[in-house]
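Input structure tokens:
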């Protein structure tokens, strides 16, 4: 065998011995892929825990008992500059009374003596502007025509007058005074005075010469609206008033019932402002004075007997 052939065979043999022998079915196949790895389950992030603070339903511990100032001072740390508060003062009589007032277990009935019945007279107040013409005539005619006390009564009645713009300290105007004197009505001892709230408060019945005067009274004292009337509306309401029914009432209810009846009758009267008012004669002729006085006397003559029974015995 030639030398070159031997060399080739030797080379092939050595190559075959140096490589591992593989089965025929695996020599040419590629290695299988690795098996899939299962994904690890995703771990949820831990929830953020927020502490919730709720109000405690348990009662707070009772405060420590008060300490004696001497003991408290001895228990203070050395060098402490804080001072203990002084002990509270002992309860006073006012504190004890207040505590008794707020405690239903300690309220005690108190016997209070009622004041005696007010002996002051029942006031009837007449009002005009200057208090020198119309209101003096109303005042003095009421005093003349209505008895100072009803038969058998012990009550006195106080008749007075005032002006919304009074001519202070002046007597009754001469023209009005002459008419009153001729009618037997006294005019002495009279001086004009200004209307004041205290006079309104004292009056059980207020009689005005005009609607404007009535409005002035109510502006000064709104609560007087139920007892303030013009002279004309009082007199004109009498035909609509059941006097017999009122006299069957207790004496103290008569006047309030009468005034309520007048208020009820007021819209039914259908009086114009001119008809509701007594004309102001001041500065006018004697004929104007006579007209004003005649209207005043007509109204007072009808009203006085009724008021006598409204303000009769036991009417307070």
């Amino acid at each position: 065998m030639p030398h070159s052939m031997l060399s080739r065979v030797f080379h092939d043999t050595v190559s075959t011995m140096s490589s591992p022998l593989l089965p025929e079915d695996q020599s040419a196949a590629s290695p299988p892929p690795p098996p899939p790895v299962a994904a690890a389950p995703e771990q949820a992030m831990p929830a953020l825990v927020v502490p919730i603070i709720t109000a405690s339903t348990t009662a707070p511990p009772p405060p420590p008992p008060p300490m004696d100032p001497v003991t408290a001072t001895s228990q203070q740390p050395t060098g402490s500059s804080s001072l203990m508060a002084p002990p509270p003062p002992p309860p006073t009589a006012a504190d004890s009374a207040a505590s008794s007032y707020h405690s239903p277990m300690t309220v005690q009935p108190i016997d209070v003596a009622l004041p005696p019945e007010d002996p002051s007279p029942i006031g009837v107040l007449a009002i005009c502007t200057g208090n020198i013409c119309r209101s003096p005539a109303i005042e003095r005619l009421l005093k003349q025509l209505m008895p100072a006390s009803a038969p058998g009564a012990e009550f006195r009645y106080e008749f007075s007058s005032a002006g919304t713009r009074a001519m202070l300290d002046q007597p009754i105007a001469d023209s009005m005074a002459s008419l009153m004197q001729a009618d037997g009505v006294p005019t002495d001892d009279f001086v004009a005075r200004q209307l004041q709230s205290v006079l309104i408060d004292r009056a059980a019945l207020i009689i005005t010469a005009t609607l404007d005067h009535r409005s002035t009274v109510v502006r000064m004292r709104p609560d007087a609206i139920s007892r303030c009337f013009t002279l004309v509306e009082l007199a004109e309401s009498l035909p609509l008033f059941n006097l017999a029914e009122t006299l069957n009432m207790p004496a103290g209810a008569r006047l309030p019932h009468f005034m309520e009846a007048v208020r009820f009758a007021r819209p039914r009267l259908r009086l114009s402002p001119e008809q509701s008012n007594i004309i102001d004669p001041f500065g006018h002729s004697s004929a104007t004075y006579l007209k004003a006085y005649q209207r005043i006397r007509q109204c007072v003559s009808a009203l006085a007997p009724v008021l006598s029974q409204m303000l009769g015995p036991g009417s307070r």
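The longest strand covers residues 122-128. Residues 18-29, 44-57, 68-83, 96-118 have pLDDT under 50 and may be disordered.
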